[in-house]
């Protein structure tokens, strides 16, 4: 459904991605793992339209979307939870959620009420400025905000970064309920065991290239180690 | 094999020699050029100096002031005050312009440096307006309508008689020659000073402050002191140029001396069209500005209308100015301040 | 009693300055754009209303109603075609482009409309006044002030009560993340500038009915407007109204002392506020 074809990306002179091939099937959960600076975030930014590419490098249901802007990509049903959560400080929690729902696809299940049902604490804090919340609550707002557009694919960039383990557990507990609605989820994650536990398939990225791919069951510790740090073993 | 840091290029060596030749030519030009050429060159040289000074504070220093007309005006008025109130010779009164601008620049900097970005720009403009309105209250210098230099003062300016005798000119033409030589000296002196500054350690520090104030401070650059020094010296020099310009016109009014359009808008256009943040930029810019003005002088306001549109077009399509466009294509820099690593060795000399 | 009158007149004058400043405040608050052509745009709008009035024989209020959508379109287009391309971290490019626009507008108007002073005729309304106990105030200044309050109120409603206003605030906070929410920052900015031009139309209407105007008076209006915006604090619309009032009162008080000090007193009040509060009276908490 969503595919990248020999995707490359660079920041000025610096090349960050060297020909990434990746695909996401409907309803699937795909994890992208890799060390810091491997190119995981760049990959998500390229898919979501924050970075523009040649049109054919990213396709969605056969349509080239690589050159579309981020707002056009969202309208096709691909929503992103950006790294660092990036709530709008001038907006309340509820306004942050509402702005996510400004572009809605069809009459999907996500509304303010269903998001509040998923993360009940947000209902209590709905009138606070988004940035007055704790890190974990902010992450919930960021996820809820992306869900409000009823996406077909949800891209999650480092949703556990900087959070306490107990908070991470709560956030990951929401993933199955998000997948129940039929949305595919792509998570970028540095915590390998966490990624392997939720994903249907895993891509390991090193220095801008995919070094390992497959279902978690077929992946050994040594293979991941090699894919992470190069062929030292 | 030896590695060294240099800013010199072959083009810069040629440019250096050409610049010296041009200065020499400029010095002897009044011996054979017509009076109107000298007047045009006076106009070009003074605008060039103002443009270089604005380029220094905004292009290199990152201080986008739209209040530089305050210094032109106060400098000019100080010179007039020296002549009219105290009977000084106009030439002797020119440094008064420098002093007055410096005195004004201290409170202006104290105030404006507290402001950031757009607030800085607007703040400097308002201070210039305040200065204009205060000067317009100065009744002995003509108040709001302005005044002229008295005839007896302009009749025997220092050196005019000697120039008239030397070149066989009338006094009026000799006055133009004198003003032209002073303008030439100010332009050359200003550009040389800026060039030396940029090639010094302070030049690097200035670039660092412009690009990131806090980062520069954290590696030991005294950002505040450097900004003060640059702002004050540019202001002082701008005041002196202002005094010279109004010595040549011999007539002054608050609206003319403190005109934001003439002394700041046009100066900014010159810098932008030529290329901001480089020494060559204002030179190209002032030539384009003068060329347009000469070519379209008969079209009145349409000329200024087009100038505005050209400034917009340059910003959209060549944001680094005409000179930027040229160096991007050719890699040539006449007054390079960029440091490059070079290797010198007997045999093979590949750059490391 | 004369001082009470002076202050009331100053407050009402401040309404005019707040009208000048409202559009500037909106655009400055949303996209940090310093529009140096704002004053000339007000004058341009006044000329447009004048042309409409002369062609149709309508009164200026109705003329403004016709001019407003045209000016909305003009603002939208300028933002789309020119200003969006120079917005960024560096304040210099937009500053220079709007400086260019200012010079082009001034001189274009000079060629088309000549340097002659013009005025929008509003009939008996111009000289009507009302007795409010200790002070007598003109209907026109009163109407100006009421319009300023209404414009600021309306902009605030849009800003805090509508989806468009949410998009304004979100884009102002972080354009990249806003685009991930399906917002196109370029088109949000274009709508904001269009809206600003509608407020400019209203400002132009009162400028033209209250006093003479000619192509050269833009920059002075721009300074007053900027002073009001900066005194109020970036992004605070009610602050802008207060800023206008402060400039207005300072000017009338200054003029009361010495007629030549009117403008000077306004500037000095601005500098004094900025000296104490470099970010204005009500700066937004997040910037």
What order do the helices and strands come in, and which of them pair?
The complex is a heterotrimer of chains A (233), B (352) and C (287).
Chain A: E1 2-11, E2 14-24, E3 29-33, H1 40-48, E4 58-60, E5 63-64, H2 70-75, E6 78-81, H3 93-100, H4 112-118, H5 121-124, H6 135-147, E7 153-157, H7 165-179, E8 184-189, H8 192-198, E9 201-206, E10 209-214, H9 221-229
Parallel strand pairs in A: 3-8, 3-9, 6-7, 7-8
Antiparallel strand pairs in A: 1-2, 1-4, 4-5, 9-10
Helix pairs in contact in A: 3-6, 6-7
Chain B: E1 2-6, H1 10-28, H2 35-60, H3 69-86, H4 90-112, H5 117-135, E2 147-148, H6 151-155, H7 160-167, H8 171-199, H9 201-211, H10 213-218, H11 223-249, E3 251-252, H12 254-257, H13 260-274, H14 280-295, H15 301-317, H16 321-330, E4 340-344
Antiparallel strand pairs in B: 1-4, 2-3
Chain C: H1 2-31, H2 38-56, H3 60-81, H4 92-113, E1 129-132, E2 135-138, H5 139-161, H6 163-173, H7 175-180, H8 185-210, H9 218-232, H10 237-257, H11 262-276
Helix pairs in contact in C: 1-5, 1-8, 1-9, 1-10, 2-3, 2-4, 2-8, 2-9, 3-8, 5-6, 5-8, 6-8, 9-10, 9-11, 10-11
Overall description:
The complex is a heterotrimer of chains A (233), B (352) and C (287). Chain A has 233 residues and is α/β, with parallel strands linked by helices. Chain A contains 9 helices and 10 strands. Chain A has one domain: Rossmann fold (3-Layer(aba) Sandwich), CATH 3.40.50. A 6-stranded mixed β-sheet of chain A has the order 6-7-8-3-9-10, with helices on both faces. The relative contact order of chain A is 0.18. With 352 residues, chain B is mostly helical. Helix content of chain B is 72%, strand content 4%. The mean pLDDT of chain C is 93. In chain C, strand 1 and strand 2 form a beta hairpin. Chain C is built from 11 helices and 2 strands. In chain C, helix 10 crosses helix 11. In chain C, 58% of the residues are buried. At the B-C interface, helix 5, helix 13 and helix 15 of B face helix 4, helix 9 and helix 11 of C.
Concise summary:
The complex is a heterotrimer of chains A (233), B (352) and C (287). Chain A is of the alpha/beta class and 233 residues long.
Question: Main attributes?
Answer:
B: 352 residues, mainly alpha, ABC transporter involved in vitamin B12 uptake, BtuC, two-stranded antiparallel ribbon, two-stranded antiparallel sheet, 4% strand, C: 287 residues, 3% strand
